[in-house]
Write a structure and sequence with these properties.
single chain; alpha/beta; two-stranded parallel ribbon; 3 domains
Length: 383
């Protein structure tokens, strides 16, 4: 066999179990040598020349005969030396590579219409394996896409547009890539290719992996701690401070109700909210802003947030994904997405006494920088 053929090292055909892979390797080998037409009938033995053939016709005929003999001899040798005994029994009586190929395809390949339908369904139902990287995931889809396109060309004489493959890749991405799918729509159409998509997604994958690898607070009771260490919260509302921190200076804080300096709206005499509601708001507002530094298990009180939000999925004791992500706009006008909601247990220390609370309907927003505690939500619904 040609030394160029040996380097491909094609495993032998056993039967249906490895037909698809073997077929692709044979076709690739022949394509490398410009002989792939011998399997489709494009390279075939020319018809005999008429007696009155011209010199040009004779030259063309001789060239065609030479090409056919060379391509057929190469393909026959390739096929007969890369099959095991069972497939060999099927093809040993044939003299041409085309006949051998047709016999093997008829024996081991599904009927074209059934195979095409199977490949379409497989593409539409394909889901990303959680253990696959983005590159591996796209490679698997590309392999399926190649098989589907070959079958489509064989039956319907048409190729499917790459746009369909790109759309399928995007639709099989995990929920962490939802924002990227929206961003991809802004890419100029002429720049949208599978290669460019893979490049962009690989960059996003690195950011997602980094975010997932960040240490998050955990505890045996599945509770999220309100602050690092102990946060002492006074039960009364006069201008006191937590025993563990310095006294907060209210001299430059302006009330949003009476517009005077020296107190917040929660302690304003003109605040018409009920005593329990106002105290509830004030208590947690002071508790969550008392610290100067924050980490993954700390929460920041936000008087503008309509929902509690966290970036840590492992905080949840119950969780339910949204049917589709919900947009969230923060005070700095940054847009991000929430993917689900659930309940979280939190602990505080009030007057040196540890207390456990239950936050309901907390939104899972992985891109939020800090965990946000919604003061309005507590005022309206309680903990």
């Amino acid at each position: 066999m040609d030394s160029n053929m040996d380097k491909f090292q094609i495993p032998k055909l056993k039967g249906k179990s490895n037909w698809t892979i073997w077929k692709l390797q044979i076709e690739s080998n022949l394509q490398y040598h410009d002989y792939e037409g011998i399997l489709t009938g494009r390279i075939k033995e020319p018809d005999p020349l008429p007696d009155d053939a011209t010199n040009n016709q004779k030259k063309e005929y001789e060239a065609s005969v030479k090409l056919y003999k060379k391509a057929n001899g190469f393909a026959v040798t390739l096929l007969s030396t890369t099959v095991e005994d069972e497939p060999m029994q099927l093809i040993m009586m044939f003299k041409t590579a085309y006949e051998m190929w047709c016999k093997l395809a008829a024996s081991y390949e599904q009927k074209s219409e059934q195979r095409l339908e199977h490949l379409y369904l497989k593409l539409l139902e394909y889901k990303k394996d959680v253990s696959d990287s983005i590159a591996t995931h796209i490679s698997k889809l590309q392999k399926l896409w190649l098989e589907l396109n070959e079958e489509s060309w064989r039956i319907d004489d048409c190729r499917l547009p790459d746009t369909l493959l790109i759309m399928r890749i995007l639709s099989t991405l995990p929920e962490e890539y939802f924002e990227f799918r929206t961003t991809w729509e802004s890419v100029p159409r002429e720049q949208r290719s599978v290669e460019y998509l893979l490049e962009r997604l690989t960059m996003v994958e690195m950011r997602v992996s980094k975010r997932h690898s960040e240490p998050e607070a955990t505890s045996s009771s599945s509770s999220a701690l309100v602050t690092k260490g102990r946060l002492h919260v006074p039960h009364t509302l006069p201008d006191q401070t937590c025993p563990s921190g310095p006294k907060k200076d209210y001299s430059k804080i302006r009330c949003h109700i009476c517009h005077e300096l020296g107190h917040t709206k929660y302690k304003c005499p003109k605040n018409k909210k009920s005593g329990d509601s106002a105290q509830n708001e004030a208590l947690f507002s002071e508790a969550f802003v008392a610290g100067e530094t924050f980490d993954a298990d700390q929460w920041i009180a936000d008087t503008g947030a309509t929902h509690h939000m966290t970036k840590s999925k492992n905080f949840f004791v119950t969780y339910e994904s949204f049917s589709e992500p919900k947009p969230v706009t923060l005070g700095n006008r940054k847009l991000m997405l929430a993917y689900g909601q659930g309940d979280i247990n939190v602990e505080t220390v009030v007057n040196n006494e540890r207390q456990r609370h239950h936050l309901k309907d907390v939104w899972y927003t992985p891109d939020v920088v800090k965990n946000l505690f919604s003061v309005p939500a507590v005022a309206d619904k309680g903990m």
